[in-house]
Amino acid sequence: MKATRQKGKSWQNCKVAVTGINARAENPGPGCAVARCIQEHPQFKGSIIGLGYDALDAGLYARHLCNNSYLIPYPSEGEEALLYRLAQIHRAEGLDAIIPCLDSELQNFGRLKSELQLMGISMLIPTRDQFNLRAKNHLRTFCESIDVHAPESKALSNPSFFDSCEKEGWKYPLIVKGLFYDAYVVHSAFEAKTIFAKLVSTWGYPVLVQKLVIGDELNLAAVGDGKGNMLGAVTMRKKALTEKGKAWAGVSIVDDGLTKVAEKIVGALSWRGPLEVEVIKGYDGKIYLIEINPRFPSWIYLSHAVGRNLPVAVLKLLSGATQLELSEPTSGTFFIRHAQELIVTLPEFETVLTEGRLAPQMVQDQIIRSA
Amino acid sequence: MEELLSRTGGKVPSRERLSQLAVSETGFIFDPQTGQSFSVNPTGLIVLDLLKRGSTLDVASNSLADRCGIPAEIASSSVEAFILQLGRYL
What we know:
The complex is a heterodimer. Chain A is α+β, with helices and mostly antiparallel strands. Chain A has 13 helices and 14 strands. Helix content of chain A is 33%, strand content 23%. A 6-stranded antiparallel β-sheet of chain A has the order 13-12-9-10-11-14. A 4-stranded parallel β-sheet of chain A has the order 3-2-1-4, with helices on one face. In chain B, a hairpin with a 4-residue loop joins β1 and β2 (28-30). In chain B, α3 (42-52) packs antiparallel against α4 and α4 packs across α5. The radius of gyration of chain B is 12 Å and the shape is globular. The interface between A and B is small, with 13 and 6 residues.
């Protein structure tokens, strides 16, 4: 196994692995944006290793973002399989840090934290308790404990709820959500039950149902230092949505009310690591907490654009830096997401499929020349 | 502004709220609190600029009347209508 991380190695020269590098236009993973934030920081001289789950994860082939890439086993294969694969990758690369970017993998990474630390790989991630307390099915209880508004919600294991819910005060339209991802607005029992079946087949039980709050959707990304402090909040309002309700365009804003809510959450949980707070600012002026995501959002590149590069802040915290050098919060910076084709050669695709890794560029060139 | 609020009962933006707005020379307005953007015409820009700088409704109305060559009463009612319209956006 590769030697443990050199003590005192600076964040600028570290080798960091990033997951969640799928980039489907309607719902991209955050990994490519995290990699981009780090790569584009002028002081970063290290390298980024992309960790993908599928040979069609675009980030695997994005050499401008990931210096090298590997496939890792799906979260459903468990932490043993993940540790085995990470040890292989570590032998080849000598990783210093990993930034997990997907909700569904965080529990496996959490269970491996000590083993990875012994190997010299550090991560800034929440503890299991922190992860569970902010989970969608516990959110309302958590909100009550910290005096934050949240829409009424219920965890369901039986779709018959949708036939009688209106009698119990659950008027359509309602929001139906998967345990980890996906949320749909439904307008009838028939529609709700169809979505329920779809979510169960994808994410399992329970399915969450939530009352719809009318207002503006705001999102805040930040990093918790594990001691109750929130660092570098960046707030965004969505300006255009994909079919899945993800931001296709957005603008940075400053909302003191949301910042206070997020500080309360981070303080109450002593949150450690990146997070995204999703709220609705109701037309009644109240802020309703919708979700706490335990990772960076896919729009995190905006943090680099407003001078609060949060993925770099994570690297700095992991290396023990005390000065994060974050700019003051600013508003009025827009982003517009766009889809782009990434050209992949046959040898590149082949090595990912057969060896679970992207052939280094030099090898690639030789393969192409000899073909 | 306060007397307009009590007289009309409409939503009147506070001076603090107005001072937060980013206003360009062309009348493009960005609200940093909500992320919304909209634009005002040249006369709206004159009034908004005056209000942001702390002018009273009377001063803003008189200034508009002078600069546009319109009767003071028309300027005054236009300023009031404009503020109430702003209130629906902010």
